[in-house]
Write a structure and sequence with these properties.
Length: 180
């Protein structure tokens, strides 16, 4: 190790092989498969089909009707709404991360305070990686924005490494690709 560092500092060529070339960027269908694999690995549940039908089956019509979201204000008297429904602006395939952009006047706390969070997603918002997201993301000038990166349901662990879901946010994350 020391020899390799010395060679690098002295400017002489190292005999270390070149790193392998990066794989080619996957096509859209592979991006979706990669996103689903990654987001399910961190505990989210992915659904494909008619969003209203899926929502009613999982949560019931009354809960869906009372859901909060970016365009549905929170009832300040309710400490934990049962359900938040949002639409992510970007989905990052290689980490299973959804990015929500909140602008002034939108309800940015909804997805953090709810017991369950549902994202109504579109395959058109998929990007391969974080670098691609930053290459596309253009904040509006002079407009306050907040980008929230969501990778799975909320989780934390104590010093004894006991995993706790929902300590700092939703215990459930459902992502629906509406194919209706």
């Amino acid at each position: 190790m020391k020899d390799r560092i010395r060679r690098a500092l002295s400017g002489t060529a190292a005999d270390d092989p070149l790193p392998p070339t990066l794989p080619q960027e996957p096509g859209p269908s592979n991006l979706l498969e990669r996103f689903i694999t990654e987001v399910e690995a961190v505990g989210a549940v992915v659904h494909r089909g008619p969003a209203q039908q899926i929502l009613a089956e999982i949560f019931g019509a009354e809960v869906v009707e009372a859901a909060v979201g970016a365009d549905r204000p929170l009832d300040r008297g309710v400490s934990e709404p049962p359900l938040a429904i949002t639409r992510p602006h970007y989905l990052i395939a290689d980490s299973g991360t959804a990015v929500e952009i909140y602008r002034e006047g939108s309800e940015r706390n909804a997805s953090v305070l709810a017991a369950a969070h549902v994202m109504l997603a579109s395959e058109a918002t998929l990007v391969p990686d974080l670098a691609s997201f930053y290459g596309l993301y253009q904040p509006e000038p002079n407009q306050p924005e907040l980008a929230v990166f969501v990778t799975g349901p909320s989780r934390t662990a104590d010093i004894e490494q006991t995993l706790v879901l929902g300590a700092h946010g939703p215990r459930e994350l459902h992502i629906i690709f509406d194919e209706a």
